[in-house]
Amino acid sequence: MIVRIMGEGQVQISAEDIAVLNELDNELEAAIEVGDEPVFRTKLHALLDKVRQVGKALPDDSLEPSELILPPADASIEEVREMLGDQGLIPG
Fold first, then answer.
1. Tens of pLDDT, residues 73-91
2. Which one of 12, 19, 72, 83 has the fewest beta carbons within 10 angstroms of its own beta carbon?
3. What does the pLDDT read at residue 45?
């Protein structure tokens, strides 16, 4: 799966890593639902860090279509709330 982190580039993640990313996504979504800014910020950074850790960075000149688009680390809680789908940022 190709994931784009806005402002950073694309990484390829394996299907095996989706479950861990979904757990972090659920925690992020819970923080957004209650409007807890400090927890939101911690969970957003944890999710992005995990994507960077498990993902293989694609070259900057790669033009692969992204299956998921994640917000940048400095996104506001409102910006991320607008990006949430029925299954959070990461479906599955």
1. 999 999 999 998 777 888 7
2. 19
3. 97
What is d(CA 23, CA 29) in angstroms, rounded to the nearest whole number? Answer: 10
Q: What is the pTM assigned to this prediction?
A: 0.91
Contact 25, 90 (CB under 8 A): yes
The boundaries of the domain holding residue 33 are 2-83
Q: Per-residue pLDDT tens for 28-39? A: 999 999 999 999
| Biggest CA pair distance of the chain | 39
Q: How many CB atoms lie within 10 A of CB 62?
A: 11
Contact 90, 61 (CB under 8 A): no
CA–CA separation, 83 vs 14, rounded Å?
22
